[in-house]
Amino acid sequence: MNFIQSLVKLHKIVPLHKQIPSIREGQIFHGHVRKLMPNNMAHVELSGKQIIAKLEAPLQAEHHYWFQVEQSESTPVLKVIAPFESNKESQSNDKSFELLLKQLGLPSTAKHKAILSFLKNEGLPFSKSFLQKAVSLLKNENISQNVAVLKLMVDRNLPFRQSIFDALNSLTSNKPFVSQLQQIVNSLNKTPNLSPSAVHLNDNLLKMIDQLHWMKSGGGTSLASNENDWEKHFPLKTILDILGFHYEKNLTKFLKGHVPIDEFKNQLMTIKPTLLSLLKEDIPTEIKTLIQETVQRITGQQLLFKNNDSMVQLFFQLPILNQFGKPDSIVHFQGKQKKGQIDPDFCRILFYLNLEKLNEIVVDVHIQNRIISLSIYNENEYPVTKLKPLERSLKTRLDQAGYNLTSVKWMKQTVKQQSFDNMYSEHAGGFQGVDVKI
User: Fold this and answer.
1) For 316, phi and psi rounded to 5 degrees?
2) Which domain of life does the protein's organism represent (predicted)?
3) Residue 217: how many CB atoms within 10 A of its CB?
4) How far apart are CA 251 and CA 48, in angstroms?
5) Residue 140 CB neighbours (<10 A)
6) Which long-range contacts (CB under 8 A, 24 or more apart) does 303-311 make?
7) Are residues 142 and 217 in the same domain?
8) CA within 13 Å, CB half, 3
9) Which SS3 state, helix, strand or coil, does residue 149 take?
């Protein structure tokens, strides 16, 4: 599972605030006529909310249509430009899409239909030019995955620009980040007369990859080991620092609220300027292509950084390779901030991992007033004998850091096949849970 697919699942666990879309003159949207009123007035549902609008022609209640906004001021005036047969048959949807595209004078391609399906499902109003722009961004391969990238751009209010799409689309790569770095190193090693910047980059990448492989072969350690042994066998700070994210000293300070948001954001990229400088060097085209792909993956993660006056959200990908699991772990952090700094007392952290024995697993960490509740989602039964000792050690370590671990829940959930839509619903009867009070 790639980074974007993982974000879609994590996004369902902690959805971004979704505003009710406003409609403007000339825009098109899929609407559901809920109730008819005198003088061609009607309640029309858009994106789960109802608006009162004037219809240019009489319509039937409880029918679906493609509307175009003739007037948006005061009471909107809507014109039907194509009907929409509301059922679950894809052929019927395709027919409705084809009718709309014909009315707009656009070709009925798979890309156009995929975008229309996305806009309909999201309840988003759009213009003809917006539709054309969105279609132009899509690649010919894996259209559904491209649409997932567009959804991420819409959710985070990112401009529909090719450079932004390409950066986020690079995160759909299933190639582990470490493998991508190793490929650059191998190519640089075969290139004579490297520039100083290329040598510097190559040294950093070699150190990081050597460290990762040492971790894999040298063996990890139990959480029950003392702190020095744990840091020795699992040098996460070193890995992140070599990556160029400066996490060795700044991630810990950031999570404790000692580093301002803007400063931390700038410190996320150290390797990126080196890569950009390397692109200006006289090196083979194929190496530049590899470097450009790596730059895009870094940029894609930076684009997912989001903060406002009270909250901050960030996603990042850790190229961790050890005997516990497969490369690349995905982290989603969401928390409060005060005066531009993280509030360590209130936050939420989600880890998306792909482990060798447990396969895909999501770890959800809630922190409220330094009280921690931990939820683990996995398709397997609760491994009591393995986790019990770790829970006690985890509680001890968290106590030393000033946090109180109150519960650990193991939720049996097929991560691959089931959505997380009801993960926190009171009526999520499909879960088989274990709640361990500590």
Assistant:
1) -150, 160
2) Bacteria
3) 9
4) 39
5) 8
6) 303/156, 303/158, 303/164, 303/167, 303/168, 304/7, 304/152, 304/156, 304/168, 305/265, 305/268, 306/16, 306/156, 307/261, 307/337, 309/337, 310/336, 310/337, 311/335, 311/336, 311/337
7) no
8) 28
9) helix
Whole-model pTM? 0.69
Identify the DSSP state of 226: -
State the CB neighbour count (10 A cutoff) for residue 114. 19
How many domains are contained in the chain?
2
How do 49-55 and 28-37 pair as beta strands?
unpaired
Chain-centroid distance of CA 339 in Å reads 26
Q: What is d(CA 328, CA 331) in angstroms, rounded to the nearest whole number?
A: 10
Query: For residue 350, how many C-alpha atoms fall within 13 Å in the half-sphere facing its CB?
Result: 20
DSSP line for 273-329: HHHHHHHTSS--HHHHHHHHHHHHHHHHHHHT-EE-SSEEEEEEEE---BTTB-S-E
CA angle at residue 327 from 321 to 328, to 5 degrees? 115
144 and 181 in a single domain? The answer is no
- Both tokens assigned to 111: 């890309």
- What are the tokens at 2? 């790639």
Residue 136 tokens read as 């132009």
| Rounded-to-integer distance, Cα 335 and Cα 345, Å | 9
Which amino acid, one-letter code, is at 175? K
Give the pLDDT confidence of 389-427 residue by residue, as tens digits.
888 889 999 999 899 999 998 888 755 433 333 333 332
Q: Are residues 158 and 181 in the same domain?
A: no
Per DSSP bridges, beta strands 306-307 and 311-318 are: antiparallel
Model confidence pLDDT, tens digit, residues 197-225? 788 778 877 776 676 565 554 444 444 44
Q: Are residues 398 and 350 part of one domain? A: yes
The residue among 108, 143, 172 that closes a domain is 172
Confidence of residue 136 (pLDDT cuts 50, 70, 90): very high
Domain hosting residue 222, numbered range: 177-437
The larger pLDDT score, comparing residue 177 to residue 229, is at: 177
Cβ neighbours, 10 Å, residue 436 = 15
Amino acid identity, position 334:
Q
Residues 166 and 258 in one domain: no
